[in-house]
Design a protein that fits this description.
single chain, alpha/beta, Aldehyde Dehydrogenase, Chain A, domain 2, seven-stranded parallel sheet, about 40% helix, Aldehyde Dehydrogenase, Chain A, domain 1
């Protein structure tokens, strides 16, 4: 197993060195993806199963490590997320065939799968390992090569996790370099990968600036936007059940999932009863002065205070200047308006939940819409109700692509407490300025070539099924470094690294790349 040229890069390396390093990694990935397309479905699934097993077996190790390295989240909850994005993910898609042709006898069309090729994947600090597991397995199930760029705040655990998956994949027969990791990501280096013509698609999970940069890179990109999910509890709901689920969801992994509830909207007629149930589930109802303390602590001129990200409720209360019981799971902050002028109606990746009381169902839906237009459009919303018409009205009114009913939104929108596709990349669609509105999965990493006959032609297309794709299997040995005609690349890239031929891109691309770099600088400060 050779990871040499993925172990990048001295932060002082020259632009020429970084360009050469990225180009070499991507060339190896391109070779690996072409070899991988020779594999049949059984072999492909066997590799995915082997990697999923290695991921599952190390879920607790990396759950603990991620918390220790980043300083936020709950180790047991991260372990669970890591497990859910291992074996269950492969099982969910086991019956989907991304390898063999599909035959439509009625329309006289044959569809031949064409994997994307080289996937460049960004991983966030909030869910580093589960996102890596998810993206690697999606790539493997569709016979793509993948290069992982970890978040600097979770670099060590992420690099180790990717190397564990690399070993499992290659031991199971995957091509060398089908999985690679950037061990020392820098802004300029990420820019090189995102802008390279050898990158076929970017899977962007992170802050808004990072996602915008991916979409601006001149390469195809699948990005996701921020969450800010409203949860509406209306009069027909089981209040005991609703309160328990909302607290469970909002406190899960200290609320670092972007699918967590941001503001609870309810009705005046049930507000007091709901507050009692929330209190029974270890929710602290903040007094007006405590709400103001949290408002000042959580938000400043530059936005959300990242010191609070993924911290527990008692720690946040203490930092804000007041004390709560040690077993408190979430802090509830009553607010009297939603939108501009109320920062507590913004996304809060910590166990602080806004609380708004509406006068009617119509006003509640209007305020949920306002919340999402403030931030979080296209992402997720939740409702606790047993009235079918109210559920339908709410789902039709909110501008999101996931509405979770009588379930915890954190887990439900991600497909782990509902039958939605399991994912750690939530598409926000047109509302959220994303190319994908559904939960992203392996199906988004493969396109299909369609062979179509004359619509008036007669005959039986099933006879054509004897002409199968030729899956020739693994090549005997990879080129020396994955790039024919080039010598082995050193583990460290220096200013003296061999430079690849200069590109002839137009000046417009260079200007776009400059803009990307500026946005990445802002994103990686988070």
């Amino acid at each position: 197993m050779d990871q040499a040229i993925a172990n990048l890069v001295d932060i002082s390396a020259s632009p020429a060195a970084m360009h050469a390093a990225a180009d070499m990694v991507l060339e190896r990935a391109r070779w690996a993806s072409q070899v991988f397309q020779r594999y049949d479905r059984d072999t492909t699934l066997a590799i995915a199963d082997a990697v999923a097993k290695a991921a599952h077996d190390n879920a607790a190790k990396y759950g603990d490590w991620a918390v220790k390295e980043t300083g936020f989240g709950v180790a047991d909850h991260k372990t669970l997320k890591n497990q859910l994005t291992a074996k269950p993910l492969v099982d969910y898609y086991r019956d989907r065939d991304f390898v063999n042709p599909r035959f439509d006898a009625e329309k006289n069309i044959i569809e031949v799968p064409k994997p994307a090729g080289v996937v460049f994947a960004l991983a966030p600090s909030t869910n580093p390992i589960s996102t890596i597991y998810f993206k690697v397995l999606c790539a493997l199930m569709t016979r793509n090569a993948i290069v992982i760029s970890p978040h600097p705040a979770a670099r060590e655990c992420s690099v180790d996790a990717v190397n564990t998956l690399i070993k499992a994949a290659e031991d199971a027969g995957a091509p060398e370099a089908v999985i690679q990791v950037i061990e020392h990501p820098t802004l300029a280096l990420i820019d090189e990968f995102m802008g390279s013509e050898k990158t076929n698609v970017i899977l962007a999970t992170g802050g808004s600036a990072m996602v915008r940069a991916a979409y601006s890179s001149s390469n195809p990109a699948i990005g996701v936007g921020p969450g800010n999910a409203p949860v509406f509890v209306e009069a027909s709901a089981d209040l005991k059940q609703a309160a328990a689920m909302i607290v469970e969801s909002k406190s899960f992994d200290n609320s670092v999932l972007c699918t967590n509830e941001s503001v609870l909207i309810t009705l005046a007629e049930i507000s007091q009863a709901l507050l009692r149930e929330l209190g029974r589930n270890k929710c602290h109802i903040c007094k007006p002065d405590e709400v103001e303390l949290l408002r000042r602590y959580l938000f400043h001129d530059r936005g959300f205070n990242v010191e609070a990200l993924g911290r527990d409720a008692t720690w946040i209360a203490e930092q804000a200047g007041f004390k709560v019981q040690r077993n408190t799971k979430i802090l509830l902050t009553p607010i009297d308006k939603i939108g501009v002028g109320e920062v507590l109606s913004r996304e809060k990746l910590c166990p602080v939940l806004g609380y708004y009381v509406a006068t009617s169902v119509t006003q509640a839906i209007t305020q949920a819409r306002a919340l999402l237009r403030y931030t979080g459009a296209g992402h997720s919303a939740a409702i606790h109700s047993n009235d079918n018409q109210t559920i339908m009205d709410y789902a039709a009114g909110v501008e999101v692509y996931r509405v979770i009913v009588n379930a915890p939104c954190s887990q439900g929108a991600a497909g782990f407490a509902t039958n939605l596709a399991p994912t750690f990349t939530i598409g926000t669609g047109y509302f959220g300025r994303s190319s994908v509105g559904e939960n992203v999965g392996p199906q988004h990493l493969v396109n299909w070539t369609r062979i179509a006959w004359n619509s008036q032609a007669s005959g039986n297309i099933n006879d054509f099924q004897t002409a199968r794709l030729n899956h020739r299997g693994k090549l005997p040995k990879a080129p020396a470094d994955g790039v024919p005609g080039q010598s082995r690349v050193r583990r460290e890239v220096s200013d003296n690294s061999p430079r690849t031929p200069a590109r002839t891109d137009p000046e417009l691309r260079e200007e776009i790349r400059r803009i990307i770099a500026e946005e990445l600088r802002s994103a990686l400060k988070d």
